[in-house]
Amino acid sequence: MKTIGIAVVGFGTIGSGVVKILQDLAPLIEKRTGIYPELRWVVDKDITSPRSVKVEKAKLTTDYKEALADPSVEVVVELVGGKGFAYTLIEESLKGGKHVVTANKALLAERGQKLFMLAKEMKKSLLFEASVGGGIPILRTISHSLVGDRIRALYAIVNGTTNYVLTQMALNKSSLEDALKEAQRKGFAEADPTLDMNGDDAAHKLAILATLAFHTELDFSHVHYEGIEHIALEDILHAERMGYTVKLLAIGKRDEDNRLELRVHPTLVPKDNQLAFVHYEYNAILVESEYLGTSMYYGKGAGSHPTATAVVADIMAIAEHSREGNFELFRPYQRLEVKSMDEITSRYYIRFHVLDQTGVLAQIASIFGKYGISIASVLQPEQSETTSVPLIMTTHEARERNMRQAMEEISRLSFIQDKVMMIRIMDGH
Amino acid sequence: MKTIGIAVVGFGTIGSGVVKILQDLAPLIEKRTGIYPELRWVVDKDITSPRSVKVEKAKLTTDYKEALADPSVEVVVELVGGKGFAYTLIEESLKGGKHVVTANKALLAERGQKLFMLAKEMKKSLLFEASVGGGIPILRTISHSLVGDRIRALYAIVNGTTNYVLTQMALNKSSLEDALKEAQRKGFAEADPTLDMNGDDAAHKLAILATLAFHTELDFSHVHYEGIEHIALEDILHAERMGYTVKLLAIGKRDEDNRLELRVHPTLVPKDNQLAFVHYEYNAILVESEYLGTSMYYGKGAGSHPTATAVVADIMAIAEHSREGNFELFRPYQRLEVKSMDEITSRYYIRFHVLDQTGVLAQIASIFGKYGISIASVLQPEQSETTSVPLIMTTHEARERNMRQAMEEISRLSFIQDKVMMIRIMDGH
Fold it and tell me: What does the entry list as the binding residues for NADPH (chains A, B) (predicted)?
């Protein structure tokens, strides 16, 4: 019997899922692949609290070195998270001759480069399918299935918390605050949801996606990101009326000169676009490539069991193909330039709250004109008597730098109440 | 420089696409993988007609044996189609020590078993990602990404012609005939579209999907299939009004006792289901599995370039992982029983044309009652004065055998005009 020995480090949500799948399906997996995935160790600082799965005592340890010292362990699964101990663990595992599987997007996006070089040097695999899109096999698809294609752009919904909140707002007309509470109640948002809500999580995932899609090294600091914290229900309803739905998109684009755009921000997605139908905790990655055209990959982007399927797939890829260290996802061969946000172009949705007086539209339009921004539509919803009324505009394609300058100037006009809201519109669709 | 030598046999639509990608991207592919895919031979009976790509004369031959005799050829790409010569070609290639990549679903579904056994014996890979869903990486996903999961059901739109026709009917209110002509004009239907329209093509693809998804050997004759030839615009419009869209679905399901349903037929898909948004020539495969949950894979299911990306991905999978014959998709380890259609259960849409007289509904309802079929809804659209009026019913879950018997009995009633139309409703959604 061929086996592959596994140590799972981090006995939390995903770790429990991996243990569960191995306990339930190891004999089936052996039938399918000829290799039995054998759980040797489960490592955690806390090995006494009850979990959703039971692990025999002899396999539990608080000391990861015990697992690393076991020669029967071929794969170390890093599920502790964070950028400190996780780094050390992966480094020591590779140096100790183990393959590594991880779901740690923040670590890979910010400190991955060195670890991948180390893996290469040690002729070991460092796989990370679970780091983006949970159980959606997007990294394999980009690296292996599209090896004979050229990706032009990615549009991805890769954060379940924000997608849950935005969906809840749109479908149930909830405020952002209420929608977030609902997400927390249902387990789709953390107690402290900051890193999800502000786009940080999606930005890390975009960095990983873009590295593979564009075969490039890149610095996480080059990814521009904005969150959904300031999206008001009002904006979602205006957008709906205009045929759009608001999504937090992670966008990676390569232009003709091989310069990249890497940005995460709320985006107006046309309602007939596939991404508009990705609701609640679901994720999806839409890929535009030269030969395949548009393709999309959809599924649960988080959660114990979905994410665990990706971890197990990585373990078995190693078992089947990486004994010689040859199953790799990460293999950039260039360093493409990333454009600054000032350089990008987009169409824009802008929502003002203005005093209800004459000449407002003319003054705004004249500032847009000055910056070469042409207006595509104006919407002034009828409103009950209040001093401040909404005014919604969309623009044709404009340069972000011009837009930013125009917005600064408009914001200083005396009839502008509140902060002006600007949301980019998904391009080319 | 590591290379992999390739012979493309069949210089038609897909063959030209493969040649095009290799000509355009081979240096890029080498950068990505470290292996240069080198086109050595293009074989076709006709090597003189102009193609969309140019191949130097020295690489063109009408004699496949010339390509097989070349020791620098490691992979033979079979793109001739059909079940005769293609079989011989694959057999001789494997026996000659070549790996094989094919897009030939009919051959694999009906005569694949022996070829896979031969490949195994020869320690060569026989890959076929392009046979289902064109460039959508669905076979890899099922075999490798879901290796640690258990698939319960597949719902797939895998025939571009019929999906084009149904979309055209629904969105432009065309008759089936006009929609088909439009599809032919646009190149999405063949001059003789029989094997697409009658479900045969989708059935072959379902057989391949099910073999991988359920890890089972199966006979193509166990796949039940019906086409869309009899779908009337009227049915599509009634369905729309009831919140459904009509799709030709390929359905594979495994029940608790590991018995399978394998069926291709027009199906009412709820409009909020992801599959309802798969329009025109696009394909999508929705997978329900125990751990990942619902996932979906969407893209172009046919055409020269999309399909060629899958062929090139297979070639490079062989180059990277199969020098030892170990990158396999096909590895069934059981033979599951397939249920007869009489045994399945479903909800049903039924459309009658009846004489506009009293007592009609009562008589129909009484026959349904006799067979234990309970009615979920009745719709009798207002109609201009004609002697025959439509009557649309949906049922709750019922057994197909009972349904068939009830329909036979109802069809004999004197007030029934025309043939009764029955369309199954997508379950569990």
Answer: 105
